[in-house]
Automatic annotation (TrEMBL):
<feature type="domain" description="Bacterial bifunctional deaminase-reductase C-terminal">
    <location>
        <begin position="2"/>
        <end position="215"/>
    </location>
</feature>
<comment type="pathway">
    <text>Cofactor biosynthesis; riboflavin biosynthesis.</text>
</comment>
<keyword id="KW-0521">NADP</keyword>
<comment type="similarity">
    <text>Belongs to the HTP reductase family.</text>
</comment>
<dbReference type="InterPro" id="IPR002734">
    <property type="entry name" value="RibDG_C"/>
</dbReference>
<dbReference type="InterPro" id="IPR011549">
    <property type="entry name" value="RibD_C"/>
</dbReference>
<dbReference type="GO" id="GO:0009231">
    <property type="term" value="P:riboflavin biosynthetic process"/>
</dbReference>
<comment type="subunit">
    <text>Homodimer.</text>
</comment>
<dbReference type="InterPro" id="IPR006401">
    <property type="entry name" value="Rib_reduct_arc"/>
</dbReference>
<dbReference type="GO" id="GO:0050661">
    <property type="term" value="F:NADP binding"/>
</dbReference>
<protein>
    <recommendedName>
        <fullName>2,5-diamino-6-(ribosylamino)-4(3H)-pyrimidinone 5'-phosphate reductase</fullName>
        <ecNumber>1.1.1.302</ecNumber>
    </recommendedName>
</protein>
<keyword id="KW-0686">Riboflavin biosynthesis</keyword>
<dbReference type="Pfam" id="PF01872">
    <property type="entry name" value="RibD_C"/>
</dbReference>
<dbReference type="InterPro" id="IPR024072">
    <property type="entry name" value="DHFR-like_dom_sf"/>
</dbReference>
<keyword id="KW-0560">Oxidoreductase</keyword>
<dbReference type="GO" id="GO:0008703">
    <property type="term" value="F:5-amino-6-(5-phosphoribosylamino)uracil reductase activity"/>
</dbReference>
<dbReference type="InterPro" id="IPR050765">
    <property type="entry name" value="Riboflavin_Biosynth_HTPR"/>
</dbReference>
Length: 219
């Protein structure tokens, strides 16, 4: 499986404010670049923190891109993948609207009645990990289901979890013209953070987009 992370951050490295509400950091051209990345992927993944904060659709906006996917025999939209250890995803979340296949990655601690509720809502549940989703095992299971190209859109907790398990191949970061600040605002990689053996990706590209810049890193 090839894992590509994409996120937009402020000048000072924040994905959102301390209120953890969705903030448009990207401009129109960057959102269009992200839409193409989604269209090129078999699945788009976020953590449950992003589901609760943003209630995203994670679908492809552009009709021509959806048609191109259908022409090559793929579903119009990539699958959606949520890392959600104990099932905090609300049953009326937009990712359960049936517009794409939705996988819920859960841990062994997920309550069985919540699993049943999610399955009734149309989700395909994959369980691994005692208290928290075992990302290595669940991503291998997704690969077994035909997901070769996985795009991850955040947030910072999930991105750190993937970096910690050396599961990230590429990272695109849009840095937009905003300063958000705040010690409790989410950053690109949160979690516990590294104290040694810091991942050291190679810079593969720099491109000016809208009023900011996209950095492309390879691991
Ligand atoms: N600017 C941008 O590009 C983006 C911004 N955002 C913003 O980021 C914020 C949300 O980010 P954040 O709070 O970090 O949430 P995340 O979306 O990263 O979700 C984190 C949650 O995922 C669950 N999870 C399950 N397994 C794992 C694992 N192995 N490793 C890590 N996490 C795991 C955990 O919850 P549990 O233990 O319950 O399973 C964890 O709390 C919002 O403000 C949103 O608007 C989000 C995406 C992109
Ligand atoms: N690329 C990008 N730029 C920003 O400025 C953002 N705030 C985000 N957020 C991500 O996009 C998701 C919204 O998806 P839908 O349009 O609802 O499908 C959101 O959940 C974040 O992952 N991304």
């Amino acid at each position: 499986m090839h894992v590509v992370v994409n996120a937009a951050m402020s000048v000072d490295g924040k994905l959102s404010s301390r209120r953890r509400e969705q903030i448009a950091i990207s401009g129109p051209d960057d959102f269009d670049r992200v839409d193409q990345l989604r269209a090129d992927s078999d699945a788009v993944m976020v953590g449950v923190g992003t589901i609760l904060a943003d209630d995203p659709s994670l679908t492809v906006d552009d009709a021509d891109r959806r048609a191109a996917r259908a022409d090559r025999g793929d579903p119009e939209n990539p699958a959606r993948v949520i890392a959600d250890s104990r099932i905090r995803t609300p049953p009326d979340a937009t990712v359960l609207d049936g517009r794409a296949q939705t996988y819920l990655l859960v841990s062994e601690a997920a309550p069985p009645d919540f699993i049943e509720e999610m399955e009734d809502a149309g989700a395909y549940v994959i369980a691994a990990g005692q208290d928290r989703v075992d990302l290595t095992t669940t991503l291998a299971k997704l690969e077994g289901d035909g997901i070769d190209q996985l795009m991850v859109e955040g947030g910072g907790e999930l991105i750190f979890g993937l970096l910690e398990e050396a599961l990230v191949d590429e990272l695109f970061v849009y840095i937009g013209p905003k300063v958000i600040g705040g010690r409790d605002a989410p950053t690109l990689a949160d979690g516990d953070g590294f104290i040694e053996d810091f991942p050291e990706p190679e810079l593969a590209g720099v491109e000016r987009v809208d009023d900011g810049v996209v950095l492309h890193w390879q691991f």
